Structures are given as C-alpha cells and as structure tokens.
C-alpha cells in the first residue's frame, strides 16, 4: 500500500479540508482492514526541535470523530500528514501483545503523536465491548459514570432511543448518540475503585472530551442534608489502587472549567451544594476502622466519602482527560443517618432526575462554548502535543 500525503493550500476552504480529513481516516481504516497498523506522520514546520512526530493506531473507526477533529486542526495550522501501513496487527491472543502494554515503559520525554501504542488501543477497545456490552464506536465525547441503577433508569427515560447493552455485562453502557459523537455515554461501573480503574483505563484510548462521576456519597459535614450535592475540588486518595502507578504526592484536582459549569447548573436549579474534598476509600465498611478513617477525614477536611471519585480523577489526570465529580449525599454516617433501606429509597426518588439533568445542562453549555473540546493544556506536559497541540 502506498503512502498517502495530505496537505492543504493557503486558500483551501473548510469543506475541502474536511474531505481530505475523511480521506485520511478512510485510508487508515483500509490499512487496518488489510491487517496492518496505520501509521501517521505529522510534519510540523513550525517546530524547531520536533518537526516530525508520529504514531501507530488500531481500529481507527472507533474514534473517527477525534481523528477528524485533530487532523483538521493540524492541517489548518499548516502541517502535512503522511499515512502509511506499519507493522502487522498483533492478534489479541498473542502472548507477545503484553510486551507493548506496560505503562511503566512510557517515555514522556519523547514527543509522541498519541498517548497509547497500537496494541493497547486494540486491547482496550476489545475490553470496552466486553465490559459494557456496546461497540466502541457507540461511545460519545462526554462520559458519565454512575454507581447506581437509578441513574440508568433516568437516562433511558430521558433518551428512550439510546443504544443499550446487547447482553448482561459487568459495567453496562448506554449511549445517547448525536452527530459527530456529541452525545452522552452513561456507564454503570458499580461500586468500588477496582471497576473505576478498569473502565477508565480503557475509556482513555477514546480520548473523550470529559469524564464526570455522577454518584452518591456519604456527607461528612454538620451542615449537610440528605439530597445536598457535593462538587469536588480535590480528592483524598484512600482508594490505594493507583498508588504504585502515580505517587500520592502528585496533586489531583478536577477540571476548573468543568467545575465552573457544573456549579452554574447547580445554581440554576437552586440546589444546595458544598464544594470540597472527596475522600475515596477502598473499604466499603470503613466504619469498622472508624478511628483511623475519621482521622484521615478530619485531616483532609473532606466533605464527602465515596469509593470511586478519586480513582476516576486520578486516571483522568494520567490519561490527560478533563474530569469532574458531582455527588449527591445519600447518608450521613458520622451523624446517625446511615443509608437504611426505606429512607434510601425515598432519597433516590427525589434526587435521581435532577442529578443527571444538572450534569447534562452543564455539558450542553460546554459544547456550545468549546466546540473543539475543553482546553487540556493544564493536564498535559509541555512536551506532549497529543495530536493537535502546538507545543514545540
């Protein structure tokens, strides 16, 4: 197969650029279908030190929306694209596949076109289909994670035509699909940091515009009521699941712009909320280690406790994906208000619709304000262009 060269002239109009971008993506699909990883080389004449960056891809059809957006940016900036077949695709059942998946081998000092290697993309997209019961192509730019079935019920009521799992799976996904993947995907990840890490590991290769944890929590402050919201501005990482991968000394904070729009939506709905630290634990029965846990809660001045938010946020940081957390208080374990069945059911009925509506309203505002995606310079190093970045 030949090398496809794509450049644009000074007066090329937007429609012509889009046609060239579509041609590039179709050629990548053709290469992959022929059994090879498509390789993309980007010539950036404006870069003094790194004029050429490249990367291999797998199953590009799953994230065409992202490739098209970023290729268009690059071409408009004056870059040249070269697309060619690279290595033969490594089968997923080949033991040699694992040699290319070790994140400890990532070299962040080397400028790269894409964060993930082709083998990792292939495996993660296969795992996404396995865990969620839906195709990778169905995933939208805005990913919502929940830990309760009730949010799934509201999502299906609000979007009755959404794509649903094709079988019973561990972490079912539901997709409200819109043109250019501008819709919403909701994944019920269940309870616990293990599932949160597993799914975000694989979601990362799709390069979503945002990941938002939409779950329930225990309220930890005196002046909180059942049904109040907590908007995270930081995390206490007591989930332990990523400690060996990312030191706990690295500060993890949600995306500032996401928080601004979520807070605006909370105000528009006139909801009671608190902004504060979320304490994420891997111990569902943390009350059984009350003294030690409460010391950490008080030291961190946490406003809420859950089992997923810090994990999602930490992987969002690692994979350079804007993320945020909006939780709803379902119980107050330190104030004699545990999550008991009758009161819990009443709470769920009153909170479930507003919770999703607040997040969706915030995202709709973001889509209008940032049609090319939220700025991500704050969550990537200066030597990581990640497709359309302008760093040298």
Task: Please give a structural write-up.
By secondary structure, the protein is of the alpha/beta class. The chain has 2 domains: about 120 residues, amp nucleosidase, domain 1, CATH 3.30.1730; about 240 residues, Rossmann fold. About 35% of the residues lie in helices and about 20% in strands. It has a 5-stranded mixed beta barrel with strand order 8-11-10-9-12, surrounded by 4 helices. Helix 7 links the parallel strand 10 and strand 11. It is globular. The two termini are about 30 Å apart. About 45% of the residues are buried.
Brief rundown of the structure:
The protein is about 35% helix and about 20% strand. It has about 400 residues and is an alpha/beta fold.
End-to-end span in angstroms? 31 Å
- Whole-number mean pLDDT: 89
In order across it, which strands form the biggest sheet? 8-11-10-9-12
Instruction: Kindly state the percentage of residues in helix.
Output: 25-40%
Number of strands: 12
Q: Evaluate the radius of gyration.
A: 22 Å
The topology string of helices and strands comes to EHEEHEHEHEEHEEHEHEHEH
Output the CATH topology of the largest domain.
Answer: Rossmann fold
**Unreliable residue stretches:** none
Biggest sheet architecture? 5 strands, mixed, barrel
Report the CATH C-level class of the largest domain: Alpha Beta
Count of helices? 9
Note the beta-strand portion: 15-25%
Q: Quaternary status of these chains?
A: single chain
User: What is the CATH superfamily of the largest domain?
Assistant: Nucleoside phosphorylase domain
The 3D shape can be described as: globular
- Structurally, the number of domains stands at 2
């Amino acid at each position: 197969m030949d090398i496809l060269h794509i450049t644009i002239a000074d007066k090329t109009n937007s429609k012509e650029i889009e046609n060239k971008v579509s041609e590039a993506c179709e050629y990548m699909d053709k290469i992959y279908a022929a059994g090879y990883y498509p390789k993309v080389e980007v010539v950036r004449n404006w870069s003094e030190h790194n004029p050429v960056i490249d990367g291999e891809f797998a199953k590009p059809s799953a994230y065409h929306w992202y490739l098209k957006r970023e290729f268009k940016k690059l071409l408009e900036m004056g870059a040249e694209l070269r697309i060619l077949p690279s290595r033969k695709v490594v089968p997923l059942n080949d033991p040699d596949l694992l040699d290319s998946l070790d994140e400890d081998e990532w070299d962040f000092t080397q400028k790269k076109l894409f964060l993930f290697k082709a083998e990792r993309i292939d495996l993660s997209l296969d795992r996404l289909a396995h865990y969620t019961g839906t195709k990778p192509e169905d995933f939208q730019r805005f990913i919502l994670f929940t830990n309760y079935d009730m949010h799934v019920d509201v999502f299906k009521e609000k979007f009755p035509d959404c794509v649903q799992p094709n079988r019973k799976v561990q972490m079912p996904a539901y997709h409200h699909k819109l043109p250019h993947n501008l819709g919403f995907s909701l994944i019920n990840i269940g309870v616990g940091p293990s599932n949160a890490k597993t799914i975000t590991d694989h979601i990362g290769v799709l390069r979503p515009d945002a990941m938002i944890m939409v779950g329930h929590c225990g309220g930890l402050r005196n002046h909180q009521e059942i049904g109040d919201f907590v908007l995270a501005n930081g995390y206490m990482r007591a989930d332990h699941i990523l400690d060996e991968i990312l030191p706990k000394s690295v500060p993890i904070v949600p995306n500032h712009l996401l928080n601004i729009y979520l807070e605006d939506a909370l105000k528009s709905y006139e909801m009671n909320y608190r902004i504060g630290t979320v304490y994420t634990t891997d111990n569902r029965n943390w009350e059984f280690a009350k003294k030690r846990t409460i010391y950490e809660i008080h030291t961190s001045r946490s406003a809420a406790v859950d089992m997923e938010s810090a994990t999602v946020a930490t992987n969002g940081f690692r994979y350079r994906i804007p993320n945020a957390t909006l939780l709803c208080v379902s119980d107050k374990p330190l104030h004699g208000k545990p999550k008991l069945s009758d009161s819990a059911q009443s709470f769920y009925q009153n909170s479930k619709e507003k919770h999703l509506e607040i997040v969706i309203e915030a995202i709709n505002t973001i889509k209008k304000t940032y049609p090319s995606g939220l700025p991500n310079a704050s969550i990537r190093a200066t030597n990581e262009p990640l497709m359309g970045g302008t760093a040298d």
